[in-house]
Amino acid sequence: MKSGARALGVAESYRDETSQFAGVVVRASRVADGFVFSAATVGGSDATDTVCAMVDHLDREDIRYLLVAGIAPAWFNVLDLRRIHDRTDLPVVSVTFESSPGLEKAIREAFDDPDVVRDRLATYRAQPERRSVTVNDETVYVRSVGLDDSAAADVVRAFTPAGGRPEPLRVARLAARGLVEME
């Protein structure tokens, strides 16, 4: 991958009812060259729109990939990766860092309202399957829309200089945590 290729990484952090989202544009050469911030409702259903609005706000044509940390930020505010891809026209790669049996049981247990459970599960089930990807002797789990499995793995590896966390997501997570600590 060319050193000037850029990815936007989006991660979040929350303490109470609002989740702080941070996005960072990082070149494959590891240079950060843009930030964007927003918020979503903890336990809400606005995370997909939040991510799309962040991309719109940046208004940058040089971003080639969108990496998001996880699939259900802000306490099961499930991201619709296909909708994000359709609205931003960017390949979307969701990266998680732990093996799990999935979120269906946790979603059922987290919400009392059967309509909320139904809607979250429908969005969750509509997402691509996770695939394990080895990066620097670590394993991450990747879902992607707009890239085939091999290309998505290549993007994750290209933006991960050390360890298993891609640099755009690592820096975005730090920025989101900083926002929460300021509150």
TrEMBL record:
It comes from the Archaea. HAMAP family: UPF0215 (MF_00582). Belongs to the UPF0215 family. This is UPF0215 protein Harman_15790. It comes from Haloarcula mannanilytica.
